[in-house]
Specification:
The protein has 696 residues and is α+β, with helices and mostly antiparallel strands. Among the domains are: 49 residues; 181 residues, Orthogonal Bundle (Penicillin binding protein transpeptidase fold). It is built from 22 helices and 20 strands. The strands form seven sheets. A five-stranded mixed sheet has the order 2-1-5-13-14. A five-stranded antiparallel sheet has the order 7-6-18-17-16, with helices on both faces. Helix 1 packs across helix 4, helix 16 crosses helix 18 and helix 16 crosses helix 21. 46% of the residues are buried.
Length: 696
């Protein structure tokens, strides 16, 4: 079927729409045969034209749909202090009511785009005639003589194609819109729908993009500039051509003078106002906390779907703290830059060294900082929650927590002597300590502080593998865990988020709270669609949590985490290193903040000899925590009422006496404290060795 918009018929139809009565009168004055033939031809053309118009308007949409129409609205993500982090949109738009639009803007728009807006019924016949005359002279469609109502009809219901068929539909829709809606309603719809360039849809988004202010605060010069842009955003935007934008603003100001809306002096003053040079809101640049924002995006899309996420005008209020986030980002980059030169040449690669940081408030489990890699623009993979890596010795506190829950104490003795475990008929596993040396019988405290592997394996074999896995689940570890003894040394993959969250249970007195990133979500009208309702669960006894914290303080005071002493306040934590130095970890906490750091390569290549958790991950953690605790007074961990304290000999775990040169104040669950006294006199004070932890 040929295009009905082509040929001679469409121009005749367009003419008849506003000249049909004068045309008939001209034909009726003739008395000749030619005049009658002309009249007959005109009748045929009019009949055909009417039929064509009816055909064209047959499939027009119902304008009543405007009453339920919901425009695409920008979704915004906010920090814990309501700072804007990011925007998600198909069309960047924020609806406003007409009372929030300056009168100067409305007058400028009407004076420039549709002078007779308040008097016509949807079509400006003089404008159509002028446009038709110019189009016929040029032989193509240059302008349409469209009213604001016609432009609204085109935006909401029609395609942007230039054809007589589309024009007829546009005119018919404009008439229907004007019959049903007031001029104020039409203006409101128009101002919220029109495109202003630079990704801004609607006057509010335009005001923010061009001037960084709300529409209600726009000055005369700003109103004039914005009123002139919709005709051709690519041509009249000051970000595209300052010369074109200046001329267009001057034209709008002159139209305002011509319509009596402003004086010549006001127009002259406004013309001197500088034009904006760049968008106030950058929609294409990197967002603050990009890894966290992408984490939020995925969670919201998973819950509400992409349509609501990108066009529903949601307000997403999150837990992230921009100050802590900035500290985390800087600490990660600085740490990697210091570490990379120390790597052996054979362990360097084209592929960059990566790291991740995650920080939680232990009391609420709110995620306060999240960095999933060194450069989001180059890799969007979030290593803070998507990367599954072996935790190495950073998993050991879960083993020790399970043991304490089952009645073990910090001073119970474990054997640190060579051992072998039969895996199957042909294979035997022989765990080793980092130093490949053994110390005989050692306390649980010493085994954890110095990250001794063999005693930890023996401890897990006593409490049971399945029981350890059960407690890992209680603490929030959801990743698959293999029921094998090497699990005690961190052989099963977990995420940084899982492990950091598990440590937060120790910091929070045994109370487990699922990590919280989204506090609440509202729609564009403020109605609450989602509110965080995670319930705290008592995962372990408060006394057990305190004892583990006390043991992990020992890791800092006299163990592998000794560098963390620089924080200058009570801190608990644990290092972790995996086979062949593929992963370096440090998870540590104060009473107010839990933070975890992972360092490694994405392809799991080795970091190189000596790249342990204490050397590769702990410095990054320390840098972040120093900044996070600036101007905060040191605070120790609170002690539950059920804890007993006893002075003991740290070598034997027995109650100390005057014969014991060494004495340590140790915490116990009631009934687990030692009953025997140290009787052997120690001639010299024991020097406590500090070692890096060993890969399993």
């Amino acid at each position: 079927m040929s295009d009905p918009a082509s040929g001679v018929l469409p121009p005749v139809v367009a003419i008849l729409l506003f000249l049909h009565q004068p045309c008939i009168m001209i034909f009726m004055t003739g008395r000749t045969i030619t005049a009658y033939l002309a009249l007959l031809l005109a009748t045929v053309l009019i009949g055909s034209s009417v039929g064509f118009i009816l055909y064209s308007a047959w499939d027009l949409p119902e304008v009543q749909s405007l009453e339920s129409f919901k425009p695409s609205i920008t979704t915004r993500v906010y920090s814990d202090s309501n700072q804007l982090l990011a925007e998600f949109f198909l069309e960047n738009r924020t609806p406003v009511v007409l009372s929030d639009v300056p009168e100067a803007l409305i007058k400028a728009l009407v004076a420039t785009e549709d002078t007779r807006f308040y008097t016509h019924r949807g079509l400006d016949y003089r404008g159509i005639a002028r446009a038709l005359y110019r189009n016929i002279r040029s032989g193509r469609i240059l302008e349409g003589g469209s009213t604001l109502t016609q432009q609204l009809a085109k935006i909401l219901f029609l395609t942007p194609e230039r054809s007589y068929l589309r024009k007829i539909k546009e005119m018919a829709l404009a008439l229907k819109i004007e019959q049903r809606y007031t001029k104020q309603e039409i203006l409101t719809l128009y101002l919220n729908q029109i495109y202003f360039g630079s990704g801004a849809y609607g006057i509010e988004a335009a005001a923010q993009t061009y001037f960084g202010k709300q529409a209600k605060d726009l000055a005369l010069a700003e109103c004039a500039l914005l009123a002139g842009i919709p005709r051709s955003p690519k041509y009249y935007s000051p970000f595209k051509s300052r010369e074109n934008a200046f001329r267009r603003r001057t034209h709008v100001l002159n139209r305002l003078v011509a319509t009596g809306s402003i004086t010549e002096a006001q127009a002259r003053d406004a013309s001197y106002v500088p034009l904006p040079t760049q968008p106030t809101v950058q929609h294409t640049g990197p967002a603050p906390a990009p890894y966290f924002v992408e984490y939020i995006r995925q969670k919201v899309e998973e819950r509400f779907g992409s349509s609501i996420l990108y066009s529903g005008g949601l307000n997403i209020y999150t837990s992230i703290n921009t100050t802590l986030q900035g500290h985390a980002e800087r600490a990660l980059i600085a740490g990697l830059e210091k570490l990379e030169p120390k790597l052996d040449r054979k362990h360097k690669h084209l592929q960059p060294l990566q790291a991740a940081i995650l920080a939680l408030d232990p009391a609420t489990s709110h995620i306060r900082a999240m960095v999933g890699g060194r450069d989001f623009s180059k890799s969007q993979f979030n290593r803070a929650w998507q990367a599954l890596r072996q935790p190495g010795s950073a998993f050991k506190p879960i083993v020790y927590a399970t043991a304490v829950e089952h009645g073990f104490s910090a001073t119970d003795m474990l054997s640190d002597t060579p051992m072998s475990v039969k895996v199957d008929a042909k294979k035997t596993w022989t765990p080793e300590n980092f130093t490949r040396t053994y110390q005989g019988d050692v306390t649980l405290r010493k085994a954890l502080a110095q990250s001794l592997n063999v005693p930890t394996v023996r401890l897990m074999s006593k409490i049971g593998i399945e029981e350890t896995i059960r407690y890992a689940r209680i603490l929030g570890i959801k990743s698959p865990l293999k029921a094998v003894l090497p699990l005690s040394l961190g052989s099963s993959d977990v995420t940084l988020l899982e492990l950091t969250s598990a440590y937060s249970v120790f910091a929070n007195g045994g109370i487990r709270i699922e990590p919280v990133a989204i506090l609440s979500i509202t729609d564009s009208s403020g109605r609450v669609l989602f509110s965080s309702d995670v319930l705290p669960v008592q995962a372990m006894k408060p006394e057990t949590a305190y004892i583990i914290t006390n043991l992990l303080k020992g890791v800092i005071e006299r163990g592998t985490g000794w560098k963390a002493r620089e924080l200058g306040r009570p801190v608990a934590g644990k290092t972790g290193t995996t086979n062949d130095y593929r992963d370096a970890w440090f998870i540590g906490y104060t009473p107010s903040l839990v933070a975890g750091v992972w360092v490694g390569f994405d392809d799991q290549r080795s970091l190189g000899p000596k790249a342990t958790g204490s050397r590769a991950a702990l410095p990054v953690w320390l840098d972040f925590m120093k900044q996070a605790h600036q101007n905060q007074d040191p605070m120790d961990f609170s002690v539950p009422s059920g804890i007993l304290f006893r002075n003991v000999d740290p070598r034997t775990g027995l109650l100390s006496t005057e014969f014991c040169k060494l004495s340590l104040r140790e915490a116990y669950l009631p009934g687990t404290e030692p009953r025997k006294f140290c009787e052997e006199k120690a001639p010299v004070e024991e020097e406590v060795a500090i070692h890096d932890e060993a890969p399993e």
